[in-house]
Design a protein that fits this description.
Elements lengths: L1 H20 L4 E9 L7 E11 L2 E10 L2 E12 L4 E10 L11 E12 L4 E9 L10 E7 L13 E2 L10 H12 L1 E10 L3 E8 L6 E7 L2 E8 L5 E6 L7 E10 L5 E9 L2 E9 L3 E9 L3
Parallel strand pairs: 9-14, 10-18
Antiparallel strand pairs: 1-2, 1-8, 2-3, 3-4, 4-5, 5-6, 6-7, 7-8, 11-14, 11-16, 12-13, 12-15, 15-18, 16-17
Length: 295
């Protein structure tokens, strides 16, 4: 009887510890996809949450077309059910053509936390209230813990080892370099980084409209004719300390049905994350400078 009691007590303690260990505090980022047949509109999204007991507060940030929106949010989290509830907030209507005059949809959210050794994920949906249920469709979200909570481990397979600039290239690649050289580089940002290896993620920003890109790093092609959508185009690049700055350029292969070619670039620099809106067309190539931060 004592052994059974001890066993049950141990199970109770372990379960209690597990429940207390569950938390949604941190940075979560991912994609919200409109739940409407035929729609390809997405919201690049981020929750920045703090938790005290069951109460949750923080920010809901999301990109739509060429703008960043930031809303304060409140809610609650039940560790027993791993259910996160986000109280009513607003989300710009998915069909808005302007972020200035677009219509806001009042929406609330319900998410489930799934914890695994590989990653922790929040999946759920934001829905409008009954007055807007026919005009504001649900938006399904999948968010994972951001890199300021988990340090990314660069994959050796994905890491791009750049060769000297004078290397021989295939005819098709050589032609692409000629096209790249003809377009003006539009320098939009300079970022100081500390890591030897950077992880880059490219997403379509706004509607999925068949934009495609080629990416150059220090004038070497590292991504060729890739289609942008709500799933990341991911690649790792090595910083070259022999240069005054490293250069990352997004070359527009097409501009889709809604010109110009726009993308959200997420740069993972160790525990830091940088979000950059890139916009390229057939005349200019969006380019950023990456500078090694001096000690």
């Amino acid at each position: 009887m004592k052994k059974l009691f001890s066993f049950l007590l141990t199970i109770y303690i372990l379960c209690s510890m597990s429940l207390h260990a569950q938390t949604v505090a941190g940075h979560w980022y991912g994609v919200g996809k409109v739940d409407l047949p035929g729609s390809s509109n997405v919201y690049m999204s981020e929750f920045i949450l703090t938790q005290k007991g069951k109460q949750v507060t923080g920010f809901f940030n999301y990109y739509f077309r060429d703008s960043l929106f930031s809303n304060k949010v409140t809610g609650s989290f039940d560790a027993a059910t791993r259910r996160l509830v986000i109280n009513p907030t607003t989300l710009i209507h998915h069909s808005s053509t302007s972020t200035v005059t677009g219509i806001d949809c009042p929406m609330s959210g319900e998410f489930i936390l799934r914890v695994a050794r590989a990653e922790s994920v929040l999946t759920g949906v934001m829905v409008s209230n009954k007055d807007y249920r026919f005009t504001c469709p649900p938006v399904n979200f999948k968010l994972k813990i951001a890199t300021d909570s988990i340090t990314p481990q660069p994959s050796k397979v994905d890491t791009v080892k750049l060769k000297p600039a004078r290397r021989d290239v295939r005819p098709a690649e050589k032609t692409k370099h000629v096209e790249f050289a003809k377009r003006e580089k539009n320098y939009i940002k300079e970022i100081e980084v500390t890591s030897d290896v950077l992880q880059l993620e490219f997403y379509d920003n706004g509607s999925i409209d068949n934009d495609s890109i080629t990416v150059f790093f220090n004038d070497s092609m590292v991504v060729s004719k890739a289609m942008l959508n709500y799933k990341a185009i991911t690649i790792n690049v090595n910083m070259d300390d022999g240069l005054d700055f490293n250069e990352l350029a997004m070359f527009a292969e097409s501009v889709g049905t809604i010109p110009p070619n726009t993308a959200l670039l997420v740069i993972h620099d160790g525990n830091k994350r940088y979000d950059v809106l890139m916009s390229s067309d057939f005349e200019k190539t969006a380019t950023i400078k990456l500078v090694r931060k001096k000690e």
